[in-house]
Design goal:
The protein has about 180 residues and is mainly α. It has four helices and four strands. The chain has a two-stranded antiparallel ribbon. A two-stranded antiparallel ribbon has the order 3-4.
Length: about 180
């Protein structure tokens, strides 16, 4: 059994799932769900529909060129079953999947490195643009912080006084016991 790819969104079409549209020239189009076949019949371009893989690849959001994609190509040449060959193929598939995920992760990190700098710039610009909204909040926050710090200092001073009184009380009690 073969796992096909959706013609529209490039997601996997498992056996028994999805739909097949056969054109008059006998070309078959496989679709994973009704959403894809509807968009296909509406003659929408998958490169312009934001949720498809082709859109993400054309916009540079996913890797478009990689040597690991060669292994995903469809091969129609029949191969005689060989247990050793099948085992080696499965191990190779696992290794290729690991390599591909590592490369995709590196690609994503490289893409996001510039995005974090851009996000910080946009946040600074937004703060500078609406600083008058933040000024009262910052002023009240400073007042709240002063109140919190003052109350914390008062609690610490009260604890110290009570600790000193307890030590003095113990010393006096110990002195009384010694005199007796």
């Amino acid at each position: 059994m073969r796992i096909e790819k959706c013609y529209f969104c490039s997601s996997p079409c498992y056996p028994g799932h999805g739909m097949v549209f056969v054109r008059n020239d006998s070309k078959q189009f496989r679709f994973c769900r009704s959403k894809c076949i509807r968009n296909f019949h509406k003659k929408r371009n998958p490169r312009k529909v934001a949720w498809t893989k082709t859109f993400r690849r054309t916009r540079g959001k996913e890797m478009a060129v990689d040597s690991t994609f060669e292994f995903e190509k469809r091969r129609n040449r029949p191969v005689k079953y060989d247990r050793d060959l099948t085992g080696a193929t499965l191990q190779a598939m696992e290794k290729i999947k690991e390599i591909q995920t590592a490369r995709e992760e590196r690609f994503f990190q490289a893409r996001m490195k510039d995005a974090s700098v851009e996000k910080k710039k946009q946040a600074r610009a937004e703060i500078e643009k609406s600083i008058e909204l933040l000024a009262p909040a910052v002023a009240s926050r400073e007042q709240v912080m002063r109140n919190v710090v003052d109350s914390a200092r008062a609690r610490i001073a009260a604890r110290k006084k009570s600790a000193v009184r307890q030590q003095v009380g113990k010393a006096v009690a110990a002195g009384d016991a010694m005199e007796e």
